[in-house]
Amino acid sequence: DIVMTQTPLSSPVTLGQPASISCRSSQSLVHSDGNTYLSWFQQRPGQPPRLLIYKISNRFSGVPDRFSGSGAGTDFTLKISRVETEDVGVYYCMQGTQFPRTFGRGTKVEIK
Amino acid sequence: EVQLVESGGGLVQPGGSLRLSCAASGFTFKSYEMNWVRQSPGKGLEWLSYISVSGGTIYYADSVKGRFTVSRDNANNSLHLQMDSLRAEDTAVYYCARGMTTLAYWGQGTLVTVSS
After folding, report:
1. Per-residue model confidence (pLDDT) at position B80
2. Residue B89 contacts by C-beta under 8 Å, 6 or more apart in sequence?
3. A37 chain-B contacts, CB cut-off 8 A
């Protein structure tokens, strides 16, 4: 199984400042079709997860442009350019290249 | 609007069974792959199962293989998860989610508690 390692586990951020979350996979996420199926999800308190980013860097419908994804191969990053109050929650990366699908352990973003 | 609504959760004794359902609306259900994902209290997300559009291809996480069975009813726009031989560690909120290589839409979840 592909192990997804997220860092940090917790990220206290000042409002209006950037935040960055790293996700590393134990093996390459490049699929045989040439795509890299790395997604990012946001889970606000008491809510189900919500898709933010798919295929490394594609923002899902309705996702603000302050969220961006980057990376390749085994190393990926989610960035929030200017953190807002509504961004508080836990963020997960997930690989969709191979079964079983696997998630990172989550990164809690909170306001300082 | 895409909607996924889970039902069937509740309290069950260890060793018991439960059948979860996910009612889909707002999209052509028979054209999309579906998944089950769970989240134990205060913990992270665990993918459990995938089913293809026809139901002909199915995958499970090792933690539930042989105990859980996923199925779908395209005529009635519903997804199901039959859970047998339940254990305390199966206590979680269970989500259905749409997608193949990503999980674009999620339901609100249904809570399953396994306890005597």
Report:
1. 98
2. B40, B114
3. 101-102
CB A78 within 8 A of CB A52: yes
Distance CA A96, CA B9 (A): 27
Question: Which residue in A has a C-alpha nearest to residue B107's C-alpha?
Answer: A48
Are B23 and B78 in contact, with CB atoms under 8 Å apart? yes
- Name the pLDDT band for B6 (thresholds 50, 70, 90): very high
- Taking the Cβ of residue B42 and every Cβ of chain A, the question of whether any pair is shorter than 8 Å is answered with no
Task: Return residues 9-28 of B near A (CB < 8 Å).
Answer: none
Average pLDDT, rounded, for chain A: 98
Question: Which letter, b or e, does each residue of B49-76 get, where b requires 16 or more Cβ atoms within 10 Å of its Cβ?
Answer: bbbebeeeeebbbeebeeebebebeeee
The pLDDT tens digits for A1-48 are 999 999 999 999 999 999 999 999 999 999 999 999 999 999 999 999
CA–CA gap between residue B95 and residue A52 (Å, rounded): 17
Output the six-digit token pair for B18: 């439960």
The Cα–Cα gap between B62 and B65 comes to 5
Structure confidence by residue, pLDDT tens digits, B27-59: 999 999 999 999 999 999 999 999 999 999 999
